[in-house]
C-alpha cells in the first residue's frame, strides 16, 4: 500500500494497489471481449433445439456485441456520476442475471433479450469503467497497465473456449448457461477491487499540469473540474447539465476528432479477417483442426504481444510519440492482410497468423492508451463512451461487408485486400493528422510558456513597484488579455 | 393449312420410349391426327388414339393460336417400328362420312426404328486394392463412337474409342465405393448399362456418445451411406449384460427408419434405466452391419451444484475484499 503523503497529492499512484486494479480490469475486459466469441460453441445445439436457421442464431452474438459497444455513453454517464466500482459491480450482477435467465428461455426471442440485451448491457457496464479506472490509477506506467489489462481478452478467450466445450459436453446448453452466469458474477469481484481513488484533487492537478494549454483555449467553463463548480451554481441550463455527465465539447477537441475518424475507419477492416480466417483455411483445403489451430496461434501471440507492446510504448523513446507507434501498428496490420493472399500453403498461413496476432495485439493494447493520451484522464470517461458508440456501427458492418465480398467474387482475397487497404488508409491518416496535431500542440505549448513568462515578469514588476494599477499606461494593449488569462489560471490554481 | 414443325425420324432401343412432335397452322385452326404404317408389306395406315396399344400411346394436343400435338409411346417393342404420319386439315367437312373433303389432309412423315437391346455383360472384380468395373456389348452391328462412365450424375471418365468393351478402375475397397455406376456406349442410339457395387451395410453411428437431460427426449442416430440401402433396422440395448430388442410399441421408444438412416427416440429419459450402450443393426441382401452408441443421461440438477459453488465463492471474495478495505481505511490518510 502506498505510504500516506502529507500535503499535495502527487497524482496517480502508478503502482501499489494499482496493480490489483489492473488484475481486476484484466478479468473484466477479458469477459467483455471474449464472452460473445466463446458463445459460438453452443449455437449449433440451440439451433437444433429451437429449429431456427443459422443466421437467426448469429443475431444473438450481434445483438450482444452491438449492445456492448452501443451502451458505451450510458456507461460513461454512470461512471461520471457514481464512479467505477458501483457500475462494474452492477454490470457483473446484470450479466449474471442475464445468463441465468437465459438458461430458462423457451424461445429464440427470449434468448435475444436475455443473452443479447441484458448480458450485453452488463458487459458494456464492465468494459468502460475498467478502462477508465486504469487512467485514474496510472500515469507514468499507464501504457504497461493498459497492455496488461487488455491482455485479458485473449487469455479469457483461450480459457473460455475449452471451458465452454467441457460445460456443454457435461451439462448441455441450459446447464452451461446457468454456470456461465455464475462465472460472470466474478465480474462483481473484479469490480469490488476497483477501490475509488481520490479523484477530485488528483484530477484537478493532472488537469492543470497536462491541459493548461486546453484551458488557455477558452474552454474553462466546460472542463471537468470547473464543471463541479457549475454544479454548485444555480440556474444551470440543460446543455450544461448534459455536458456535466457526458462531455460533448470533446467534438471540438482536435485530437479526439482525429482519433474518432481514424478508429471508425480502422474498425471496418479490423475484425473481419479473424472471422474469416478459419473458413479461408478450409477453403484452401486445410482440415478443420489445423484451421482451428491457426486461431490458437493467433490468440497465443496476441496474449504475449499486448503486455510487450505496453512495455515498449512506455519506454522513453516511444511514449512521447505514442500516436505514431499506434498508426504504425494499424498500418502494419493492414500490410499483413494485403500480403495474406500470397500465402497459399499451411506454413504461409501460420506465418500470417503469427504476424496478424502480433499486429492485432499491438493495436488492441494501445487502443485506449492513445485516447487517454490525447484527451487526458478526466475527459476520458466521456471520450470512451462517445468513441465506442461511433465504432459500434463499423464494427458490426465489417464482417458482413467482408462476407458480401466473398460471396460476390467467390474468392477470399478481395476481403483481405479490402481490410488491408482500409487499415493502411486509417494508419496513414492517423500518422499524418497526428504529425499535424503534435506540431500544433508544440506551438501552443510554446505560446503558453511565453505567456507564463510574460505573466511572471509582469507580476514581479508590479509587486516590486507595489503598484497594481489596471489603468496604468505602462501596460501595452497586448498585456491586458494576458493578465485576464493569468487571473484565470490563478483562480484555477486556487480553486482546489 | 401448313406445317410449322414436322416430326423427326428416330432410332430407339427396345423398352425405351419415343416422342414425336408436330405443329401446324391454318385458318381455321387445323386438327392434327396421327397415323401409323408398320413395316409389314401387308400393312396399311391405321389411326392412333390416346390410350392405344395397351395404353402405351399418349397423345397430347393443344389448339390455341396454332395446333400442336405430341405423341409418346412407352415400352417400345419391335412391332412399334414403322412410319408415323402427322396429318392436319382445317376443312370443315374433313370427318364427314358422306361428303368428300375439298382439301385433302396434309401429311408429314417420320420413321421410327426400334432396335433390340444388345446384351451387355457387366463385371466387377477386385484385385490388389483396386476395383475394376467392365462392360462388354455383344451387338457388333452398331457403330460405337465413344464411352462414358457416370456415377451420381457426374462423368467419371470418357473416351472416343470404338471398341465394344470398356472398363473403369477405382483405387480402394468395395466397401468404400459402393453405389450405382453406369457405362454408356455412344452410338445411335445411346446405350447404357448399370454396374452395381454392392456391399453389406457399412453402418456407423452419427455420434458415438450422446447426452440427454433427465425427463427430456434422447435421440440416437445410425446411418448407412453404402449401397444398397438397408431393408431392415433393429435396435438393441445392452445394460446389465442383457441384450433386449427395443420395439416401437413399448411406450417410450419411437423408431423412425429409412434406407440410409435410423433414429431411436427415447421419451422421458430416466437416469438409471436409459444410460448405457445401444446397438443399431442394419441388414440388406448382402449381409448386415452394426454400430454402438453410448447414451449418458444428465440429472436435472447436475448443473446446480457448480452454480451454487461459484456463487458462494463470489460472495466470499467480495466480502473479503470489502472487509479488508474497511479495516485499512482508518490507517490511510484520504488523498
From TrEMBL, chain A:
Start and end residues of each stretch annotated as Disordered: 451-496
TM segment ranges: 16-36, 57-78, 90-123, 144-163, 175-194, 256-277, 289-312, 324-344, 350-368, 380-402, 414-436
PROSITE patterns per record: MFS
Reactions accelerated catalytically: 3-methyl-2-oxobutanoate(out) + H(+)(out) = 3-methyl-2-oxobutanoate(in) + H(+)(in); 4-methyl-2-oxopentanoate(out) + H(+)(out) = 4-methyl-2-oxopentanoate(in) + H(+)(in)
Biased composition (Basic and acidic residues): 451-473, 480-496
Keyword Phosphoprotein applies: no
Domain Major facilitator superfamily (MFS) profile, first and last residues per copy: 18-438
Family: Belongs to the major facilitator superfamily. Monocarboxylate porter (TC 2.A.1.13) family.
Name of the protein: MOT2 protein
Organism listed in the record: Copsychus sechellarum
UniProtKB/TrEMBL annotation, chain B:
InterPro entries: Ig-like_dom, Ig-like_dom_sf, Ig-like_fold, Ig_sub, Ig_sub2
Record's protein name: Basigin
Pfam family for this entry, one: Ig_3
UniProt keyword terms in alphabetical order: Cell membrane, Disulfide bond, Endoplasmic reticulum, Glycoprotein, Immunoglobulin domain, Membrane, Receptor, Signal, Transmembrane, Transmembrane helix
Main location: membrane
GO term, biological process aspect, one: homophilic cell adhesion via plasma membrane adhesion molecules
Any GO molecular function: cell-cell adhesion mediator activity
Residues annotated as transmembrane: 303-324
One GO CC term, this protein: basolateral plasma membrane
PROSITE patterns for the chain: IG_LIKE
Topological type in the membrane: Single-pass type I membrane protein
Gene that this polypeptide is encoded by: Bsg
Keyword set includes Endoplasmic reticulum: yes
UniProt-listed Gene3D superfamilies: Immunoglobulins
Domain Ig-like: 16-104, 118-198, 201-296
Compartment list: Basolateral cell membrane; Endoplasmic reticulum membrane
Native organism: Copsychus sechellarum
Amino acid at each position: 500500500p502506498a505510504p500516506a503523503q502529507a500535503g499535495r497529492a502527487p497524482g496517480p499512484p502508478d503502482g501499489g494497489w494499482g496493480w490489483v486494479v489492473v488484475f481486476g480490469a484484466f478479468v473484466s475486459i477479458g469477459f467483455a471481449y471474449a464472452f460473445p466469441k466463446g458463445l459460438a460453441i453452443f449455437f449449433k445445439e440451440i439451433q437444433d433445439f429451437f429449429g431456427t436457421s443459422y443466421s437467426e442464431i448469429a443475431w444473438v452474438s450481434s445483438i450482444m456485441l452491438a449492445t456492448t459497444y452501443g451502451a458505451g455513453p450510458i456507461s460513461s454517464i454512470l461512471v461520471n456520476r457514481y464512479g467505477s466500482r458501483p457500475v462494474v459491480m452492477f454490470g457483473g450482477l446484470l450479466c449474471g442475471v442475464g445468463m441465468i435467465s437465459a438458461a430458462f428461455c423457451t424461445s429464440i426471442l427470449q434468448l435475444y433479450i436475455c443473452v443479447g440485451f441484458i448480458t450485453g448491457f452488463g458487459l458494456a457496464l464492465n468494459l468502460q469503467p475498467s478502462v477508465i479506472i486504469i487512467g485514474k490509477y496510472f500515469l507514468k506506467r499507464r501504457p504497461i497497465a493498459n497492455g496488461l489489462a487488455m491482455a485479458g481478452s485473449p487469455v479469457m478467450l483461450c480459457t473460455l473456449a475449452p471451458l465452454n466445450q467441457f460445460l456443454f459436453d457435461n451439462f448441455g446448453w441450459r446447464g452451461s448457461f446457468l454456470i456461465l452466469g455464475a462465472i460472470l458474477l466474478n465480474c462483481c469481484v473484479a469490480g469490488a477491487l476497483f477501490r475509488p481513488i481520490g479523484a477530485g484533487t488528483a484530477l484537478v492537478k493532472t488537469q492543470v499540469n497536462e491541459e493548461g494549454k486546453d484551458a488557455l483555449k477558452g474552454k474553462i467553463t466546460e472542463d471537468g473540474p470547473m464543471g463541479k463548480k457549475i454544479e454548485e451554481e444555480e440556474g444551470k441550463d440543460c446543455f450544461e447539465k448534459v455536458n456535466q455527465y457526458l462531455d460533448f465539447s470533446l467534438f471540438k477537441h482536435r485530437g479526439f476528432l482525429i482519433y474518432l475518424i481514424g478508429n471508425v475507419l480502422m474498425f471496418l477492416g479490423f475484425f473481419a479477417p479473424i472471422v474469416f480466417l478459419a473458413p479461408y483455411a478450409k477453403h484452401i483445403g486445410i482440415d478443420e483442426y489445423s484451421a482451428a489451430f491457426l486461431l490458437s496461434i493467433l490468440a497465443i501471440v496476441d496474449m504475449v504481444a499486448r503486455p510487450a507492446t505496453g512495455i515498449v510504448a512506455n519506454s522513453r523513446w516511444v511514449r512521447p510519440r505514442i500516436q505514431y507507434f499506434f498508426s504504425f501498428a494499424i498500418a502494419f496490420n493492414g500490410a499483413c492482410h494485403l500480403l495474406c493472399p500470397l500465402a497459399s500453403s499451411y506454413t504461409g498461413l501460420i506465418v500470417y497468423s503469427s504476424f496478424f496476432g502480433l499486429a492485432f495485439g499491438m493495436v488492441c493494447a494501445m487502443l485506449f492508451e492513445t485516447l487517454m493520451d490525447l484527451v487526458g484522464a478526466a475527459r476520458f470517461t466521456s471520450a470512451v463512451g462517445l468513441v465506442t458508440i461511433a465504432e459500434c456501427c463499423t464494427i458490426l458492418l465489417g464482417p458482413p461487408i467482408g462476407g458480401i465480398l466473398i460471396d460476390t467474387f467467390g474468392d477470399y482475397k478481395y476481403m483481405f485486400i479490402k481490410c488491408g487497404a482500409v487499415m493502411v488508409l486509417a494508419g496513414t491518416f492517423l500518422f499524418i493528422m497526428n504529425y499535424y496535431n503534435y506540431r500544433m500542440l508544440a506551438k501552443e505549448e510554446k505560446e503558453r510558456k511565453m505567456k507564463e513568462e510574460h505573466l511572471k515578469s509582469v507580476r514581479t514588476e508590479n509587486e516590486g513597484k507595489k503598484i497594481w494599477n489596471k489603468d496604468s499606461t505602462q501596460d501595452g494593449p497586448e498585456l491586458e488579455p494576458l493578465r485576464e488569462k493569468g487571473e484565470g489560471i490563478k483562480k484555477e490554481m486556487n480553486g482546489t | 393449312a401448313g406445317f410449322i414443325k414436322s416430326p423427326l425420324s428416330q432410332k430407339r432401343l427396345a423398352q425405351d420410349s419415343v416422342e414425336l412432335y408436330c405443329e401446324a397452322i391454318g385458318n381455321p385452326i387445323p386438327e392434327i391426327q396421327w397415323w401409323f404404317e408398320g413395316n409389314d408389306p401387308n400393312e396399311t395406315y391405321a389411326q392412333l388414339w390416346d390410350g392405344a396399344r395397351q395404353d402405351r400411346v399418349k397423345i397430347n394436343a393443344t389448339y390455341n393460336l396454332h395446333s400442336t400435338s405430341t405423341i409418346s409411346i412407352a415400352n417400345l417393342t419391335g412391332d412399334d417400328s414403322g412410319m408415323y404420319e402427322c396429318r392436319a386439315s382445317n376443312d370443315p367437312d374433313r370427318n364427314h362420312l358422306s361428303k368428300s373433303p375439298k382439301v385433302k389432309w396434309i401429311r408429314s412423315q417420320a420413321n421410327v426404328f426400334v432396335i433390340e437391346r444388345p446384351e451387355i455383360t457387366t463385371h466387377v472384380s477386385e484385385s490388389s486394392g483396386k476395383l475394376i468395373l467392365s462392360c462388354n456389348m455383344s451387338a457388333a452391328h452398331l457403330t460405337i463412337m465413344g464411352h462414358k462412365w457416370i456415377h451420381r450424375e457426374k462423368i467419371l471418365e470418357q473416351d472416343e474409342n470404338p471398341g465394344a468393351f470398356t472398363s473403369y478402375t477405382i483405387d480402394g475397397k468395395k466397401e468404400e465405393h459402393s453405389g450405382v455406376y453406369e457405362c454408356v456406349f455412344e452410338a445411335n442410339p445411346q446405350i447404357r448399362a448399370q454396374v452395381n457395387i454392392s456391399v453389406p451395410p457399412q453402418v456407423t453411428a452419427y455420434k458415438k456418445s450422446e447426452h440427454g437431460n433427465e425427463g427430456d427426449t434422447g435421440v440416437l442416430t445410425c446411418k448407412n451411406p453404402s449401397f444398397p440401402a438397408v431393408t431392415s433396422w433393429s435396435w438393441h440395448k445392452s445394460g446389465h449384460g442383457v441384450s433386449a430388442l427395443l420395439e416401437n410399441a413399448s411406450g417410450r421408444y419411437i423408431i423412425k427408419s429409412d434406407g440410409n438412416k435410423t433414429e431411436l427416440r427415447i421419451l422421458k429419459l430416466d437416469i438409471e434405466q436409459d444410460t448405457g450402450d445401444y446397438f443399431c443393426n442394419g441388414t440388406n441382401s448382402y449381409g448386415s452391419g452394426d454400430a454402438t452408441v453410448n447414451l449418458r443421461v444428465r440429472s436435472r440438477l447436475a448443473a446446480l451444484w457448480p452454480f451454487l459453488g461459484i456463487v458462494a465463492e463470489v460472495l466470499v471474495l467480495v466480502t473479503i475484499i470489502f472487509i479488508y478495505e474497511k479495516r485499512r481505511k482508518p490507517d490511510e490518510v484520504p488523498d
